[in-house]
Specification:
single chain, alpha/beta, Rossmann fold, 2 domains, 6 helices, 34% helix, globular, binds NADP nicotinamide-adenine-dinucleotide phosphate, Fungal_SecMetab_SDRs
Length: 194
């Protein structure tokens, strides 16, 4: 996402937890303004137009844990990262997942993977509540499913490469209107059932 935004000339402020390990971000330093709190005001004196809440975790092997054997510490950990840490601020896209959708849950097994899936269902609820609150104030807020993507989380079996997912998501973000506020969007422009 940073690469595509920087390429088209947007000013990008990317944050990460371990800069020394973020080799791809480091390589992009030349084309985007490297995060420094003091620089933010100079770059964006009028604030941000788009905020993507991207961070998310899922534990290995979660997909086989039956719902009644869910580890409560695991549930708290996943919720802390995927839901509680979400902030709110023109366009706010909260990274959701089709795995948080009740409408489509039978496609992926309907009694497994509770922490991640419940956390993404909660991302949807949090997004809609803030969409209801701030959508009337020229903010557009919505949960966004990136597709199944070849990342560390998505794995090598995923059908989508990151550039394709990102360009689809940027298309939705760029073209978001008040009608998008509070909808559950997918990378390909379709809405997703709750
Ligand atoms: N890949 C898929 O198929 C897929 C499908 C649906 C939804 N999603 C969602 O898309 C988003 C991005 O996932 P991804 O596929 O890119 O996963 P990923 O490859 O595992 O990357 C997750 C990112 O989240 C960051 N992160 C995790 N915990 C964090 C925390 N507590 N504070 C700050 N950053 C934290 C990680 O930072 P570090 O590098 O520092 O660990 C990493 O950059 C997530 O919200 C995920 O749930 C992904």
């Amino acid at each position: 996402m940073v690469r595509q935004l920087a390429k088209r000339g947007d000013k990008v402020i990317a944050a990460c937890r371990n800069p020394s390990k973020a080799t791809e971000l480091q390589a992009l330093k030349a084309v985007f303004v490297y995060a420094a709190v003091a620089q933010v005001e100079a770059i964006a004196p009028n604030g941000f137009d788009v905020l993507v809440n991207n961070a998310g975790i899922s534990d290995d092997g979660a997909w086989t844990v039956p719902v009644d054997q869910t580890d409560l510490d695991e549930l708290r950990t996943v919720f802390d990262t995927n839901v509680v840490a979400m902030s709110q601020k023109s366009v706010i896209a909260n990274m959701s997942s089709i795995l948080g959708s009740v409408t489509t849950m039978t496609q992926f097994g309907d009694t497994v993977g509770l922490p991640y899936r419940a956390s993404k269902a909660a991302v949807n609820m949090v997004s809609v509540q803030f969409a209801n609150l701030y959508g009337k104030q020229a903010l557009i807020i919505f949960p966004l499913h990136p597709g199944w993507v070849q990342t560390d989380m998505g794995g090598s079996q995923a059908p989508l490469q990151p550039p394709e997912s990102v360009s689809g998501m940027l298309n939705i973000i760029d073209n978001a209107t008040p009608a998008t506020n509070g909808k559950c969007m997918q990378w390909n422009g379709q809405t997703l059932g709750w």
